[in-house]
Amino acid sequence: MTLSQISMDRTIDALGSVWSSLRELVGSIGPDDWRTPTCLPGWDVTANVAHVIGTEKMLMGEQPAAPVSVDDVDHVRNDIGAMNEAWVRELGVLSTDELLAEYDRVTAARLAALTEMPQEEWDAESFTPAGPDSYGRFMQIRTFDCWFHEQDVRAALGRPGHTAGPAVAVTLDEITTALGFVVGKRAGVAQGSSVTFELTGSNGRTVHVDVAERARVVDSLEGQASVTVTMSVLTFTRLCGGRTGVDEVRAEIAVAGDTELAEKILGNLSYTI
């Protein structure tokens, strides 16, 4: 198999930037804010921060102190979800000061380890949540995941921000890898069709998906797309992450071309586990 070649310096910079931004955010909130529910079922602000810490602890070789039963937890649907829940429960009982101290310890250790990692180890095959790929791809997914959870916290607290910069760019890189699957498999767009996503904002970009023998992201299309869907980067990412529904953000979306096709695509953008 061909492993993804991911820029090491760019991705580590992006991961550090999202950890710094999330730390600045939660370091400025009040005691009651930590228990604010987010859009993720069963998870408040504390749980989102605990999840970020727990995953990085796992990558440092640490494990939760004890397994937890998740049989009665509807939002846990697989082994990764069960591991996430174990960390959330273990770290969620810490005081705010203790949780922030652990956040600082773990993210500093992880950044140091990544910075010192040999290039060949970064490029080597590794487990990733998307299947076997390079370790660099895993860290691209980590940037994507951490940025999403920062935005979950920001949305819950009414504290918008960090919608531009390296972490956003890397997040969009990761989402782009899934758009062929989203358009071709989830939305079932017919062969001969094409889609253009016009994403607006500071990190805006244009992404084309051509459906020939299979749907794939391409640099350009021959002729006009069957449908062009325009929205902000933030709206797009919230839809892809299942954080909002199409009807909730319909006023923020513009469609040109085949409106029926657009509805099919918009209704299937959510693809994360």
Task: Tell me what you see in this structure.
This protein has 273 residues and is of the alpha+beta class. It folds into two domains: 8-162, dinb family like domain (Four Helix Bundle (Hemerythrin (Met), subunit A)), CATH 1.20.120.450; 169-266, Nonspecific Lipid-transfer Protein, Chain A (2-Layer Sandwich), CATH 3.30.1050. Helices cover 51% and strands 12% of the residues. It is built from ten helices and seven strands. The protein has helices at 8-26, 45-59, 79-92, 96-116, 119-123, 135-157, 166-186, 233-240, 246-249, 259-266; strands spanning 125-126, 133-134, 194-200, 205-211, 215-218, 227-232, 254-257. It has a five-stranded mixed beta sheet. Strands 1-2 form a two-stranded antiparallel sheet. A hairpin with a 6-residue loop joins β1 and β2 (133-134). α1 crosses α7, α2 runs parallel beside α4 and α2 (45-59) packs antiparallel against α6 (135-157). The longest helix is centred in the middle third of the chain and has 23 residues, at 135-157. The radius of gyration is 19 Å and the shape is globular.
Short description:
The protein is an alpha+beta fold and 273 residues long. The chain has helices at residues 8-26, 45-59, 79-92, 96-116, 119-123, 135-157, 166-186, 233-240, 246-249, 259-266, and strands spanning 125-126, 133-134, 194-200, 205-211, 215-218, 227-232, 254-257.
Looking at the structure, the CATH topology of the largest domain is Four Helix Bundle (Hemerythrin (Met), subunit A)
Main β-sheet description: 5 strands, mixed
User: Which series of helices and strands comes N to C?
Assistant: HHHHHEEHHEEEEHHEH
CATH class of the largest domain: Mainly Alpha
- Arrangement of strands in the largest sheet: 5-4-3-6-7
Number of strands: 7
Mind telling me the C-alpha Rg?
Answer: 19 Å
- Tally the structural domains: 2
**SSE class:** alpha+beta
**Distance linking N and C termini:** 24 Å
Q: Tell me the fraction of residues in β-strands, as a range.
A: 5-15%
Shape estimate: globular
How many helices?
10
CATH superfamily of the largest domain: dinb family like domain
- Uncertain spans, ≥5 residues at pLDDT below 50? none
CATH architecture assignment of the largest domain: Up-down Bundle
Helix proportion range: 40-55%
